[in-house]
Design goal:
The complex is a heterodimer of chains A (973) and B (187). By secondary structure, chain A is mostly beta strands. Chain A contains 7 helices and 65 strands. The two termini of chain A are 52 Å apart. Chain B is built from 6 helices and 2 strands, in the order H-H-H-H-H-H-E-E. In chain B, helix 3 runs antiparallel to helix 4 and helix 3 packs parallel to helix 6 (132-159). The chains are: A mainly beta (973), B mainly alpha (187). Chain B: Keywords: Endoplasmic reticulum, Membrane, Transmembrane, Transmembrane helix.
């Protein structure tokens, strides 16, 4: 077995050293959707980052908390900042000021300013209280623009003016009365803080006018709302930085709109279209813009708008004109050029530009978005006046398909699938076999051999019709194979390839959409669909996606029900709610069903508290179903057949000791192929792996004692097979475990006291790896000896046996150079390739693939490895594991907000598919033991062919010479 | 033959009558009887003893037997003489898998096995009706020596780790222990 040793040594030594992604493989192996999230209406705008430059960028703070700039001409991301590091659900504020090279944002407790061109941070200030609104002061006494931030500090309204250069507080206004701070607005002379005054349910509006220089209260006006404003959401609009900011709200039935110019007591009421469902107010943000605004009223069947002017002298509001009711959804946006204000109206098929002064249409362009089926929800636009009568408009709109589109004079500029952010679940699925073939194969399987044979011959005869096409395609395939170009899949039909790289990735997002990507074709989106309709503010909490291969359906189990989606087309087949909330899904093997001869796997929903439905006796799964209980305990449920019904009973319950709380549970992946049941040591002895598929790792923390205890449980008997306690653990930080084959590892942040020197301690992100073996001794299969099978329950039940069979555990700790999360292990078809632990680098925004050899607990400590250990590929132990850039599978890409990484085996053994989702969507292929079974892109087929041809020619040329010489020798000797 | 008038006969006639001796490519294949080379060698062989015989009396059958036995023992112990050389070469070639050591190992196995298969041929020349018993001893010794040479090859192969003598060599045939119960995690 020496060759095996050498090769494993070689593989081991090499794969630790070199693991980089080659430059020519970028974009071929991997794909990356660099996303921002669905832009929010209030936080999206065009802005010119350089005063002297006319080019503008498109800025947005999305609903997942990513602030970024996009190039309006190409749709490429210029810069991105993930504000909180966590995926948020809407909120946040962004403002830019005309002519300034910075933009300002606020989220939660902090206010930040960014360089508009590069995205570099100018300042980041954290405050007490939550930010309620943000505004840029256009006019200050100094030669700079300042930032006004409204906070809600435990019920007190706090308004701070921050220095626009460094974020320091210029003045602070604090109103301790229990008002609900709403918005801040400013005109040239005053700053207005608008808050809800009164008791819950019947608020009045309180407008506090403040002095811009000192922040002293100048005036306070209470606007009676007659019970129409019940919460913050009822106030439709508080006018931005125009010369005359307004506040507007509607009554409950959306029949009247009440508008007040801030700083006055005058309240004006305008009637609204009948059946108006909601109202939006669009106004320019610039101080030099005319004080015009547009009221967009949406009805059930259409939308219309009214344009109002504010008379600056009298503070009266007059209706200027109206844009008529059009059917369908539409979006309005404002754009200002100097003092002029333009309104852009985007309907399902048109882009219409009007001036705020008069109702004359300045431009009208049909929307050429192809077959794009979605409707605009909201938009931002930019208008350029080319000549006296000619205008150019570009508008970036968010559609109800969660896409972000840019139309340039009606032409589609780009589309960004921003809806893929906020993904909550994903899975790999095989490309469905064509239905005809599947059907005829089934037919053949069921008929007798002779008819099956005839059927098959007939089928092959029919297939001959594709032969000419196939033959015609051969030269092209040959050429593309030689030149290394990709064979483009002609037609829309998706086919499996012989390497198995073409797989579907099904991605479900919290917005209720499902996407299908082709993992083999640079992540091309195949379809996307709205699987469920969600109410506003609701999220789709998907627990699992199950691919039901026989029926080509996806079963997407969410917390409140499940959806069935066709895997080919993405059509939603059925959406069904569940009676009680679902906490998880177990994929169980069911008995034979009427149609299929194979046992079918189906998803069993687990309800809150670890409850399951009673099942008909013939459907009951045989195995134990392991669930989490109501208090976080782990339970093993077993179905017991009682008459014709099967009821589940807990066969064991694992509750951690008092004070401990289970924070993470990991089980072996469903596909975890074992190539070898033992590890061959340097002296040719074997250490047998403890390979029990019914195990899981539970990490429990004790917050009071700052300890982490890792339990290894047998999931059939509930016995603890092993446990280890780590001290000095930061229980607030991410603690995660992952398990595969015969090992598991956990990562956490801890302070580790050195054993050799108790006075010294190491603080850092640790990775604790444990290997499980059947026995401590080599060549020993433990207490079970050569038994062909084992039971987890028997040793406990029978009094003569010595308790459960415990594994021998070898553990080693490493200190990681960076925190990692979203741990996953690569999966290959037969498990021959070594495994890699994949983790998301939360701080450097990448995915690292740590080779298993590096995280080997048997690495010799404090000495160089012996000859035998070197043959095994063991290196000397070093406590630190540095994140080598060569191990980062995302290389130079910045992948933000990864929540989960999934892996899948392919047909070739060397490769594993990787897919990461969260905010960004990233997929790649990794080969932990290198591509030993396929030729890489670097393989020069051309020179190989040239060599073969050259040799052939040489042989042809030399053959007569040699023949002549041979004859001569015969004759002349 | 007819060389009375060499001038009269053309050169080709002379060539035809006395063709050039062809070099036999493979010495192990004897030329057929009557072939010129056979005639020449046989005649030359005969010539040498013919020179010696006048001085010596022809050996008695007993003497011939002793002589043949001596020769047979020489043949039997022949492989042993090669052993130190082979051993040194094996030691020098090392235990790694390289083309040289692989060829060495191949030869180390091929030579004894071929020798064993050709045991009877090797002693055919020395065997007579009378010394059969004694030749048998030599044959046994020969076989033993070939086995020693074979053992050297086996030792080498073992040194190279090619013999399945350890537990790890049979690991692939050992089955994974199957669990009797199953659990489905839903966490």
């Amino acid at each position: 077995m020496r060759p095996l040793h050498l090769s494993s040594l070689l593989l081991g030594a090499l794969s630790v050293g070199v693991h980089a992604v080659f430059q020519d493989e970028v974009g071929h192996l991997d794909y990356h959707y660099e996303l921002l999230g669905v832009p929010q209406r209030e936080t999206t705008f065009f802005h010119r980052p350089r005063r002297e430059d006319k080019a503008s960028l498109l800025y947005t703070l999305s609903d997942v908390g990513v602030l970024g700039a996009v190039h309006p001409s190409s749709g490429a991301v210029v810069w991105r900042q993930f504000l909180t590091g966590n995926i948020t659900n809407g909120g946040g504020f962004v403002r830019a000021s005309e002519g300034e090279n910075w933009i300002c944002s606020a989220f939660g407790h902090s206010v930040h300013a960014w360089d508009a061109v590069t995205g570099r941070n100018r300042f980041w200030m954290d405050f007490e209280g939550e930010v309620k609104d943000l505004e840029v002061m256009e006019m200050t006494e100094k030669e700079r623009k300042d930032v006004l931030v409204l906070f809600d500090d435990n019920g007190a309204t706090v308004l701070r003016r921050l220095n626009g250069n460094d974020g320091s507080v210029v003045w602070e206004f604090r109103d301790a009365s229990k008002d609900v701070p709403l918005q801040v607005s400013t005109n040239v002379e005053k700053v207005f803080a608008v808050s809800l005054h009164g008791s819950l349910g019947s608020y009045n509006l309180k407008v506090t006018a403040l002095d811009t220089l000192t922040g002293k209260r100048v005036d306070e006006i209470i606007l009676g709302t007659k019970g129409e404003v019940n919460s913050e959401k009822d106030v439709t609009f508080v006018g931005a930085n125009s010369a005359a900011p307004v506040v507007a709200w509607t009554d409950d039935s959306h029949s009247k709109l009440r508008i007040n110019v801030l700083g006055t007591k005058n309240l004006q009421t305008f009637p609204l279209e009948a059946d108006t469902v909601s109202v939006e107010v669009h106004a320019p943000h610039l101080i030099q813009s005319q004080p015009h605004f547009l009221v967009h009223s949406k009805t059930r069947s259409g939308h219309r708008a009214d344009v109002y002017h504010v008379q600056l002298k009298s503070d009266a509001i007059t209706k200027a004109y109206e844009l008529p009711l059009l059917p369908g959804q539409g979006a309005f946006s404002t754009a200002s050029v100097g003092a002029n204000v333009f309104f852009t109206r985007i309907t399902a098929d048109e882009l219409i530009l009007t001036d705020s002064m008069s109702h004359g249409i300045l431009g009208r362009w049909p929307l050429k978005t192809g077959n794009y089926p979605a409707h605009p929800l909201h938009a931002v636009s930019e208008v350029i006046k080319k000549s006296a009568t000619e205008y150019a408009v570009r508008a970036a709109m968010v559609t109800d398909a969660d896409d972000w589109l840019l139309v340039r004079n009606g032409e589609l500029g780009w589309t960004r699938p921003e809806g893929m952010t906020g993904a909550v679940a994903a899975t790999f699925a095989e490309i469905p076999k064509s239905e005809d073939l599947a059907k005829s194969l089934e037919e053949e399987a069921h008929s007798n051999p002779l008819t099956a044979y005839i059927h098959r011959v007939n089928r092959h005869f029919d297939d001959l019709q594709y032969l000419p096409d196939y033959l015609a395609a051969i030269p092209q395939r040959l050429i593309s194979s030689i030149l290394g170009t990709d064979i483009t899949n002609k037609g829309d039909k998706l086919l499996r390839d012989s390497f198995g790289f073409h797989k579907l990735v099904i991605l479900a997002t919290r917005r209720g959409r499902v996407y299908a990507l082709d993992a083999g074709n640079e992540g091309k989106m195949l379809w996307n669909t709205k699987a469920v309709d969600l109410a506003e503010g609701e999220t789709w909490d998907v627990k699992a996606i199950f691919v039901d291969e026989p029926s080509n359906q996806l079963v997407i189990q969410a917390r409140d029900g499940h959806a069935l989606v066709d895997i080919d087309t993405g059509k939603t087949i059925e959406v069904r709610g569940s009676l009680s909330p679902v906490q998880g899904v177990a994929i169980v093997d069911g008995p034979d069903q009427s149609v299929d001869t194979l046992p079918r796997r189906w998803p069993l929903a687990i309800y809150d508290g670890g409850k399951v439905d009673s099942l008909p006796a013939d459907l009951a799964p045989e195995g134990t179903v392991v669930v989490r209980g109501a208090e976080g305990e782990i339970k093993g449920l077993k179905y017991v057949i009682e008459s014709d019904e099967a009821n589940a009973y807990a066969s064991w319950i694992f509750s951690p000791p008092k004070g401990q709380k289970i924070v993470h549970v990991a089980a072996r992946p469903s596909h975890d192929a074992i190539a070898s049941i033992g590890r061959v040591l340097g002296d040719r002895t074997v250490k047998y792996k403890y390979l029990n598929p019914n195990t899981l790792v539970a990490a429990a923390v004790d917050e009071a004692a700052s300890t982490l205890t890792v339990y290894l449980l047998d999931t059939v008997s509930g016995e603890i097979l092993s446990s280890a306690t780590h001290e000095g653990v930061d229980t607030a930080k991410n603690i995660e475990c992952v398990m595969a084959e015969n090992w598991f590892l956990c990562t956490f942040f801890g302070q580790y006291t050195l054993q050799t020197d108790p006075g010294q301690s190491i603080k850092g992100y640790q990775l604790v790896v444990s290997d499980l073996y059947e026995s401590e001794l080599p060549n020993d299969r433990g207490p079970l000896g050569n038994a062909a099978n084992f039971s987890s329950v028997d040793p406990i039940d029978s009094p003569t046996a010595g308790g459960p069979v415990l594994p021998s555990v070898i553990t080693q700790s490493f200190v990681l150079g960076a925190p990692i999360s979203a741990l996953a292990v690569t999966q290959t078809r037969q498990g021959i390739s070594t495994r890699q632990v994949l983790g998301y680098l939360t701080e450097s925004h990448g995915i690292v693939g740590l080779p298993r050899q590096l995280l080997e607990p048997r690495r010799p400590v404090g000495r160089d490895p012996s000859q035998g250990e070197m043959e095994e590929g063991l290196m000397r132990y070093h406590p630190t594991v540095e994140i080598d850039p060569k191990m980062v599978v995302t290389h130079e890409r910045e992948v933000i907000g990864v929540k989960k990484i999934i892996t899948s085996p392919v047909v070739v053994e060397s490769t594993s598919l990787v897919f990461a989702f969260g905010v960004d969507v990233f997929g790649t292929r990794v080969a932990p033991s290198f591509l030993f079974d396929i030729l890489g892109k670097g393989f020069n087929k051309l020179s190989l062919i040239a060599t073969v041809v050259g040799l052939g020619l040489g042989v042809l040329a030399l053959a007569p010479l040699v023949r002549k010489k041979q004859i001569n020798t015969l004759w002349q000797s | 033959m007819s060389q009375l008038k060499p001038s009269a006969a053309p050169r080709w006639v002379a060539d035809l009558h006395s063709p050039p001796t062809t070099k036999t490519k493979n010495p192990s294949i004897p030329d057929p009887p009557g072939y010129p080379s056979q005639a020449v060698t046989s005649s030359s062989k005969k010539r040498e003893p013919a020179k010696a015989t006048p001085q010596r009396t022809p050996p008695t059958p007993e003497e011939m037997d002793t002589l043949k036995l001596k020769k047979a023992w020489e043949v039997a112990l022949g492989p042993l003489k090669n052993l130190p050389m082979t051993g040194i070469m094996m030691y020098m070639s090392g235990n790694s898998l390289q083309i040289f050591s692989i060829m060495m190992v191949f030869m180390a196995f091929k030579t004894p096995i071929m020798g064993l298969l050709a045991t009877n041929q090797a002693f055919e020349r020395f065997e007579t009706e009378t010394n059969r018993g004694k030749i048998l001893q030599a044959k046994l010794a020969y076989i033993l020596m070939q086995c020693v040479a074979l053992a050297l090859g086996v030792w080498k192969v073992n040194g190279m780790g090619l013999l399945p003598t350890t537990r790890s060599d049979w690991l692939a045939w050992e089955a994974q222990r199957e669990p009797l119960e199953f659990a489905v995690p839903a966490l």
